[in-house]
Structure formats: C-alpha cells, structure tokens
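Need tokens for this chain, all 163 residues.
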Amino acid sequence: MIRRADRQDIPRIAEIIIFGKRVAYRSIFQNDHVSFNELQVVDLYKQYEHDPKALEEMLLYDDGIIKGVINGHPVDDSTIEITDFYVEPFFVGRGIGTMLIEHLIQEAGKRKFQKIILWVIKDNVKARKFYETNGFVNSGKTCIIEGTDKEDCCYEYFIELFY
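Here are the structure tokens for all 163 residues:
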C-alpha cells in the first residue's frame, strides 16, 4: 500500500497537497487570496513536471486510490527533512498518516539516517499533536514564517539504529 511516487502520480499528488494545505492553513492564516488564488493544483503540477527529481524521495499511500503523500529529503548524511506530508482530507483519521510516517522512519533507519526533522506551524495544534503521538519531539528551534507573524517549530525524531 505504500510505494514510491512516479510521474504518472503528479496530478493526484498536486491535488492532495493543495487541498491539504487549504484545509490545514486557511484557519491559521485566514487569507482567502493565498488559499484560493495562489494555492493552485495546476501550478504545483507544473512544478513537479518541470522538476521530477522532487518526486525521488516521495512515498504514497495507494490502495487503488492515492490517499496520502510524504516527502523526506536528506539534509546531510545523518538527517532527513520532511518537506511535504498530507493526507487527502476525506481520509484523515484512518491511520494513513501514521502508516506513511512509520514507513518513512523504517526506510530512514535502513539507510542509516539518525534523525528526521520537520517544521510545523505553532498554531497547527492538530499536526503538532499528531507528530508528538508518533514519537517526534519539539526541538525548541523556531522561526517566523516569511511574510507572516506566524511561528514555525522544528520537530525531531531520533531513529534507533540496530547494527
């Protein structure tokens, strides 16, 4: 059910990410212009078409319908950063996100990475609780999201390596 993404998946990936962002961020930023004018499926589709390398690390939950995506890119030899992680809003709460994150953690461990990091908006309480439930800890590092007054928090997951 979890597999690597490829070019044929780009339309569905773009759809999940854009709708996921709208659902997660609209109430936080309260900016209809960004939510409905700037966040466009076609624009993201074109970005992935232009840069298919962006799909190289992306994993999909696919049971005949692609329902979730997670994209973790190596930062260095020891760390992976999750840059995109969305479940189709219609399927949230069915364990898909947990399966995706567990699969990424297992894969990272097999590849000898020691840590996974991600940034989450401080006001996104639901996401922060999800990450904490799945073993991530708030590192205490923060930054202001460019062009806003909102704060991003860095979360970390330390991978147990068994040699």
